[in-house]
Amino acid sequence: MKTRSPSSYSRSSSEVRIYVIRLKHDDPKKATGARLLRLGIALKFMRGSPLTLNPLSLRLISPRDGEIIRKRGILAIDASWRRINEVRWPRTPSRRLPFLVAANPINYGLPEYLSTAEAIAAALLITGFYEEGWRVLSAFKWGPEFYRINEERLEAYSKAEDEGEVRRLSEDFRRELLG
Predict the structure, then answer these.
(1) FRET label pair with 133: which of 9, 36, 90, 148, CA 20 to 30 Å apart?
(2) 3-state secondary structure labels for all residues of the chain
């Protein structure tokens, strides 16, 4: 784990509202969204218009989305990758993550098959909410490993000017790793 000062990355030290919609696709003991809810790190989503993490979205998250997250919060759907096409996505602004590699025990080393917690943490880190991202990762013993294997990517994305630059970086990282 890096010993950087979180305030050097964070937009604010105030709590970001993290929401989860839990679909019962997986064992709740393995579902990272369920764990975030149990620990009180995330809230059960009821209503509002947070930024939704949606792997099917055409738009990529970028540092510019930090203002939406600060004002409205961030929402992730805790669902199985095998049943992702069954998910009814909320009608809120949505973004997908750029190229990252999973560190969770189920999908370790697989590109883009992130757990709910990895997705939330990555989005928070990319948009400048460093403390909040680490709070999510620290709830899992493999959390620091996710950061370690994606550190270069996460830092590059967090310094991007806009979505276009994040897209270019993502494509470069994908080519570098997958050829």
Answers:
(1) 90
(2) CCCCCHHHCCCCCCCCCEEEEECCCCCCCCCHHHHHHHHCCCEECCCCCCEEECCCCCCECCHHHHHHHHHHCEEEEECCHHHHHHCCCCCCCEEECCCCECCCCCCCCCECCCCHHHHHHHHHHHCCCHHHHHHHHCCCCCHHHHHHHHHHHHHHHHCCCCHHHHHHHHHHHHHHHHC
